[in-house]
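// run 5 | inverse folding | seed 20
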């Protein structure tokens, strides 16, 4: 951690903006996550400036200003392609709903503004014009000790805004910090308040946690403190859920390891989190071997994931991708697969999902905690065989066929209807089986020699 800030580390626009406010007689403090991240030596984004100037006074200082959140005292100052949020010092607020302040009031001192912030490490401000810090809650000490501690009494601060405990869990992962013990002890009392937080805000925090190196850290905090019981209790059923002899860990630990190993986009990480959600309820002993089985856990899991992702307002694209990965995550590849089997797999999963699926499968295998060299080799072999099929331009959907719907209608004497789609899919199945059939004449011959009842024709 660094204890000074070099002006060269700041975007020139922020410095310019601060100087402008200072020359008009106001204070300008860079504050919040960007200062925390800068001191930690991490890439900072979202440069937020706090000032004692009112929004109207700020507007007078700059040419291009957008009143983005004027009711909260925030305006956005535009500078070329950059933009910065400038917020008037705000004081502690009363929260009767545990979510949003009833009303906002402005204060004159930066320290009073810092007092309303959630964690000490988020309550450090830096004045770049005079090169000075405002750090009334010793945030820099906590940064050094990698400790997450609330500003003021934890129970009171969590009582104001139930989201803060989830932010705390998320920061444990993104900053790789530990909760200070009194702060953690107050999580339990804040759960009732946390229940009132909107699901969109919960979703956003989960997705932010997924961007860290070790998201499991956030989920372990959530499990320990009761947050998970409220948000996704089905995951808790994984704790102590023992698996078959190929696994060293219970489903929960395996899931946490998969999550950390699947170092990809937040969406893929969500799939890693949810991939075995169907396991606890599908677990049964095999009569033959006496070992645990989890038949159909991937499709039960996909249904569970779909419901939950809908509830938590994930976008339909995100939901579709995550559910698809959960549904197909169990790849039972063996070298005995024929080329046609590889093509059927590619067709079933869809070319755009192959890479994410193989990444998830690799993490899933590595997370077993047993020697897995053979399984990794098999996945690598599958990857190569898929590449071969792709470079051979194998037909994977009906658009890739050498004939189209019109040709089919003509050949069948049809005026259009469900039989056309059925016939095209039949031809695709034939071509996936035997790619050399994908020639116009061959397809037409295959079509006319097939039993028309296959397509629903008499
Ligand atoms: P990141 O941008 O990495 O998610 P951040 O700390 O910058 O983290 P923001 O949501 O951008 O988080 O908020 C900016 C600052 O506003 C925080 O650093 C904190 O000082 C304050 N803040 C944000 N949310 C809350 C909250 N729920 N309660 C109190 N203060 C908050
Ligand atoms: Mg931020």
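// decoded
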């Amino acid at each position: 951690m660094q204890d000074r800030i070099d002006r060269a580390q700041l975007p020139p626009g922020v410095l310019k903006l601060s100087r402008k406010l200072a020359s008009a007689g106001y204070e300008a403090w860079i504050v919040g996550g960007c200062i925390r991240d800068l001191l930690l030596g991490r890439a900072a984004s979202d440069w937020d400036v706090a000032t004692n100037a009112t929004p109207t006074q700020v507007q007078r200082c700059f040419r291009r200003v957008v009143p983005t959140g004027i009711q909260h005292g925030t305006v956005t100052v535009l500078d070329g392609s950059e933009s910065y949020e400038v917020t008037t010092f705000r004081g502690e607020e009363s929260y009767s709903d545990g979510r949003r302040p009833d009303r906002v009031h402005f204060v004159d001192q930066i320290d009073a503004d810092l007092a309303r912030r959630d964690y000490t490490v988020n309550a450090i401000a830096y004045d770049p014009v005079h090169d000075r810090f405002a750090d009334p809650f010793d945030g820099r000490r906590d940064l050094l000790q990698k400790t997450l501690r609330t500003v003021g009494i934890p129970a009171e601060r969590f009582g104001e805004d139930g989201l803060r405990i989830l932010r705390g869990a998320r920061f444990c992962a993104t900053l790789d910090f530990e909760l200070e013990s009194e702060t953690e002890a107050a999580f339990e009392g804040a759960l009732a308040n946390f229940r009132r937080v909107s699901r969109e805000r919960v979703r956003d925090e989960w997705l932010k946690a997924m961007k860290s190196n070790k998201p499991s850290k956030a989920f372990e905090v959530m499990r320990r403190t009761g947050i998970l019981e409220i948000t996704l209790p089905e995951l808790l059923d994984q704790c102590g859920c023992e698996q078959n002899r190929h696994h060293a860990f219970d489903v929960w630990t395996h899931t946490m390891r998969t999550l950390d190993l699947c170092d990809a986009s937040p969406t893929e990480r969500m799939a890693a989190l949810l991939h075995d959600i169907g396991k606890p309820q599908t677990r049964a002993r095999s009569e033959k071997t006496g070992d645990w089985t989890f038949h159909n856990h991937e499709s039960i899991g996909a249904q569970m994931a779909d419901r939950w992702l809908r509830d938590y307002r994930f976008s339909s694209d995100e939901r579709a991708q995550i559910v698809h990965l959960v549904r197909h995550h169990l790849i039972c590849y063996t070298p005995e697969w024929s080329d046609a089997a590889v093509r059927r797999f590619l067709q079933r999963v869809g070319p755009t999902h192959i890479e994410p699926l193989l990444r998830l499968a690799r993490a899933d295998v590595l997370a077993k905690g047993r020697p897995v060299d053979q399984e990794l080799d098999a996945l690598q072999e599958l990857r190569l065989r898929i590449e071969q099929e792709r470079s051979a331009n194998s037909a994977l959907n009906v658009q890739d066929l050498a004939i189209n719907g019109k040709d089919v209608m003509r050949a069948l004497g049809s005026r259009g209807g469900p039989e056309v789609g059925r016939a095209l899919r039949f031809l695709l199945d034939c071509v996936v089986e035997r790619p050399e059939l994908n020639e116009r004449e061959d397809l037409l011959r295959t079509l006319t020699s097939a039993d028309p009842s296959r397509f629903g024709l008499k």
